[in-house]
Specification:
Length: 292
């Protein structure tokens, strides 16, 4: 194992590309990349890095591509990427990230591709994707995401591809996706343990009707629940999911109708009975009234 020490690259200030992939690196010390202010590509993939120093990006203002995939990152400080003003591609896939709090990607206004697949994320939190106006690709597959906050995706005006395949999603809210104000977004949602009910059917059919949203793998979206639908494609069972609900509505409607009709009939009968009584007691008034 090795460590990238403080100011290791001092003097190499004009360096544009630095590849340190598969180099048994397990530690990056503070100011490790000090003075590399022209560096455009840094590849630290396939190492054993557990954390990044808070000042990791201080000199890396020219960096366009940062590769950190296949490391051992559990957590990223809100400051580590602070100065990556020109970053376009950031690969953090195949790490151990459990969450990326609000602030980690804040201000990466040139970022176009963010790879976070094969981590252990459990939610897409509100605020975690703020101020990423240029983000086009967000790869979140093979995490453990069971929740997406309603407004979490709203700031992503340029999002063209959103991959949520292989997560832990049971339900979705339509609001979460309709908040995406893009021209066209392709979404992948298969490989999740969907709870197929009438609600889910409605959400998917609403999304499918929105012109700028495309669920690419809709025919591969399969149910986990209820057990009798396990493995079935949502597209297949789609129209049947609301039958039970429709039946319930029908039963209620019929019951209400029958009650109303019965009430009307009873009322009519009572009226007749009363008018019969009236006929007996006030026959004179009755003869004057017009025939009904
Ligand atoms: C995934 O998230 C659920 C809670 O939603 C948790 O119980 C489970 O342990 C998580 N699995 C992994 C592999 O982290
Ligand atoms: C659906 O799943 C099959 C089998 O896993 C795969 O070959 C196909 O590419 C998938 N289609 C889409 C649109 O993802």
């Amino acid at each position: 194992m090795s460590s990238i020490g403080t100011r290791t690259f001092t003097g190499l200030w004009s360096l544009r590309v630095l590849v340190l992939t598969d180099s048994q690196i397990d530690e990056v010390q503070p100011q490790a990349f000090f003075s590399l202010s022209f560096l455009e590509k840094l590849d630290l993939s396939w190492n054993h890095i557990k954390t990044l120093p808070v000042d990791f990006s201080t000199s890396l203002t020219a960096l366009k591509e940062l590769r950190l995939e296949h490391n051992n990152l559990h957590y990223i400080s809100g400051y580590s990427f602070e100065y990556l003003d020109n970053i376009e591609k950031l690969d953090l896939s195949h790490n151990q990230l459990v969450s990326v709090g609000p602030g980690v990607f804040r201000g990466l206004s040139r970022l176009r591709q963010l790879y976070l697949h094969n981590n252990r994320l459990s939610a897409v939190q509100q605020g975690s994707l703020d101020m990423l106006p240029g983000l086009e690709v967000l790869q979140l597959s093979n995490n453990n995401i069971s929740q997406i906050d309603t407004d979490a995706l709203a700031p992503l005006y340029s999002l063209a591809v959103l991959v949520l395949e292989g997560n832990n999603l049971h339900h979705l809210k339509f609001k979460t996706f309709i908040s995406l104000h893009t021209t066209a977004t392709h979404i992948q949602l298969s490989g999740n343990p969907w709870s197929c009910d009438c609600d889910l059917h409605r959400v998917f059919s609403k999304i499918l009707r929105v012109r700028h949203l495309h669920i690419d793998d809709y025919h591969n979206v399969t149910c986990q629940d209820p057990p009798q639908l396990a493995g079935a494609s949502l597209a297949w069972v789609d129209s049947q999911l609301c039958i039970a609900e429709t039946a319930t509505v029908l039963v209620i409607t019929v019951t209400v109708l029958v009650t109303v009709v019965a009430a009307v009939v009873m009322a009519e009968r009572n009226r007749k009975r009363n008018s019969g009584k009236n006929w007996d007691t006030e026959s004179q008034t009755q003869t004057q009234s017009p025939p009904s």
